[in-house]
Write a structure and sequence with these properties.
Layout (H helix, E strand, L loop, with lengths): L4 E4 L1 H16 L4 E5 L7 H9 L4 E4 L2 H6 L7 E3 L8 H7 L2 E4 L2 H13 L4 E8 L7 E2 L3 H9 L4 E7 L12 H18 L5 E3 L6 H5 L9 E4 L1 H4 L18 E14 L22 E7 L11 E3 L5 E5 L4 E4 L12 E6 L1 H9 L4 E4 L1
Parallel strand pairs: 1-17, 2-3, 2-10, 3-4, 4-5, 5-6, 6-7, 6-8, 8-9
Antiparallel strand pairs: 1-11, 11-12, 11-16, 12-15, 13-16, 14-15
Helix pairs in contact: 1-2, 4-5, 6-7
InterPro entries: Ala_racemase (IPR000821), Ala_racemase_N (IPR001608), PLP-binding_barrel (IPR029066)
Keywords: Isomerase, Pyridoxal phosphate
GO molecular function, one term: alanine racemase activity
């Protein structure tokens, strides 16, 4: 195996997906499995489909292109760019939208390609990221319905990602109410009412998700087994679907405090150090260019992460019961941010298991 490597356990991904799909199905909710944390690696997406995901969802058209051979409907999560309208219509079956100018451009492109592109209108329920205001949503929907080449199939919302607003019964019930008002006013049927992401999943667990919400866009809950409203582990899921493996390239005993006047590091920060005396320190062949270091947790609990530069991560192995040597591999679990950065780095090998 080449290093550093991100090992991916497909069976665990499939198992996590299946558990969440079954839990959501009890409330008539279908799962859009979010593939962006691993940059749309097709084998991982296929494991999600095997687990029962109804849709594959990603923020980047480039990742949807990687998965174009998979038959499941593809959903573009990030509001489309005008400059990418052609690719959106070509590779996404559904896109989340909040700007009429963009939707009109999608309409024109879809008509030119003799296709129908499905639209989910995003509604801002207070998190202050994307979406039209709730009191504008019904009228906005009417403008979309008049367009050719696109079809309004639903509405959705996003919570916690920017403003950290927690999904609750009251705000998600407002989304259902808006959907009902659109259906009543225009005589249409909306097939999707998308009640958010993994932060909404806790409402499924406690049985309070409002009736009418029939879609959740689940990423972290699938790939890491966490709900993201309160950061709790989801019982029965795996949190080690992904493992970072990094190789030791130097192993020496050194002081724990640098010698000399302390300035700023390579990233403009002035570091502080804890004096633990002389310690056995390993340098690993990975750095901040590849991963968000503070999102890693060593599997060997006796290892302490000391810090990193662009290409080197330094760990304290003094207290470990393992007698590490040059060339040995140290493994880490990770949070969502670390997984995203590792997946994005071209210098980290992706190993499917």
């Amino acid at each position: 195996m080449n290093y550093p490597a991100l090992k991916i356990d497909l069976k665990k991904i499939e198992a996590n997906t299946r558990l969440l799909v079954e839990k959501c199905a009890a409330y008539n909710i279908k799962v859009s499995a979010v593939t962006k944390a691993f940059c749309g690696i097709p084998e991982v997406a296929e494991a999600m489909v095997k687990g029962g995901a109804a849709y594959l969802a990603d923020s980047r058209v480039e990742n949807l292109i990687k998965m174009k051979h998979i038959k499941q409907p593809k959903m573009l999560l990030r509001i489309p760019m005008l400059s990418q309208v052609k690719e959106v219509v070509e590779y996404a079956d559904i896109s989340l939208n909040s700007e009429y100018k963009v939707i009109k451009a999608l309409s024109d492109e879809a008509q030119e390609k003799r296709k129908c592109h499905d639209i989910i209108l995003m509604v801002d329920l207070g998190d202050l990221r994307e979406g039209v205001w709730a009191d504008e949503a019904v009228e906005y929907a009417g403008k979309i319905i008049k367009l050719e080449g696109v079809r309004l199939i639903g509405i959705g919302t996003n919570l916690t990602c920017y403003g950290a607003v927690i999904p609750k019964v009251d705000n998600l019930s407002k989304l259902v109410e808006i959907a009902e008002n659109i259906e009543k006013k225009y005589g249409v049927k909306l097939s999707i009412i998308s009640g958010g992401n993994s932060s909404s999943y806790y409402l499924v667990e406690n049985g309070t998700i409002p009736k009418g919400i029939n879609n959740l866009r689940l990423g972290e809950s699938v790939v890491l087994g966490n709900e993201t409203a309160y950061g709790n582990r989801i019982e029965g899921t795996y949190n080690d679907c992904f493992t970072l493996c990094a190789e030791i390239i130097e192993l020496k005993e050194k002081p724990s405090v640098p010698i000399g006047e302390i300035g700023v590091d390579a990233f403009g920060n002035k570091p502080t150090y804890v004096d633990r005396g002389i310690r056995k320190r390993a340098i690993l062949a990975i750095g901040k260019q590849d991963v968000r270091i503070d999102g890693l947790t060593p599997i060997d609990k006796k290892i302490i992460i000391l810090g990193a530069s662009s290409d080197h991560m330094i760990v304290d192995v003094t207290d470990s019961e393992t007698d590490y040597s040059i060339g040995d591999i140290i493994e880490f679990t990770m949070d969502y941010g670390a997984l995203l950065s590792l997946s994005t780095s071209d210098y980290v090998y992706k190993v499917i298991e």
